[in-house]
């Protein structure tokens, strides 16, 4: 006769204690080493994690291969456990305070789930990025006219001009601005005098 395993002995020992209506608890106990009729699993095999789920005023234990959303896996010397993430907006976390995936409607930034990305960062799918990710860049545009910050294009020695570039198809992604480059430039010192505009008569000749 083949000897019973520790897991089979656990199930065999608790089955006579279970009422017919407690079949759900019996199924749950098939994966655990120690079981309680009221609380389900209380000790799991080494490879599994104990997940405690509130059931009214008590907790019901189940042994799982992976922890459910909103929890992280904590390995211990005596037993592995599923521990709840601190933030309710977190779907998966590496530790209690460091989230790795947020619930729908939130952006992930440095382990935190935020309703919107901080100033200076860029939203990308479900993350907030410190640096804007662009597709392969295209050619720079032509330099703009040399002018002052106040808009004058002559009468001064130095001004500024700029140029831009986006992706190779001249379109930026939805979350990244155009790249801009500026430089110092020489302006026309003298402005051309503004001439009077000639009035045109009905016959097409200046009046």
Description:
- With 207 residues, this protein is mostly beta strands.
- It has 3 domains: 1-83, Ribbon (Hormone Receptor, Insulin-like Growth Factor Receptor 1, Chain A domain 2); 85-131, Hormone Receptor, Insulin-like Growth Factor Receptor 1, Chain A domain 2, CATH 2.10.220; 132-190.
- Helix content is 8%, strand content 33%.
- The chain is built from 2 helices and 14 strands.
- The strands form 6 sheets. Strands 4-3-6-5 form a 4-stranded mixed beta sheet, with no helix packed on it. A two-stranded antiparallel sheet has the order 1-2. It has a two-stranded antiparallel sheet with strand order 7-8.
- The longest helix has 9 residues, at 6-14.
- The protein is rod-shaped, with a radius of gyration of 35 Å.
- Mean pLDDT is 76; it is low at 1-25, 169-174 and 196-202.
Blueprint (SSEs and pairs):
Blueprint: H1 6-14, H2 23-29, E1 34-36, E2 40-43, E3 49-55, E4 58-64, E5 71-74, E6 80-84, E7 90-95, E8 98-102, E9 107-109, E10 112-114, E11 122-124, E12 127-129, E13 158-165, E14 179-186
Parallel strand pairs: 3-6
Antiparallel strand pairs: 1-2, 3-4, 5-6, 7-8, 9-10, 11-12, 13-14
Features:
single chain; mainly beta; Hormone Receptor, Insulin-like Growth Factor Receptor 1, Chain A domain 2; 3 domains; 8% helix; rod-shaped
What Rg do the Cα atoms give? 35 Å
Taken from the alpha-carbon principal axes, the silhouette is rod-shaped
Give me the count of strands. Answer: 14
Helix/strand/pairing category: mainly beta
Describe the structure in brief.
With 207 residues, this protein is mostly beta strands. It has two helices and 14 strands; from the N terminus they run ααββββββββββββββ.
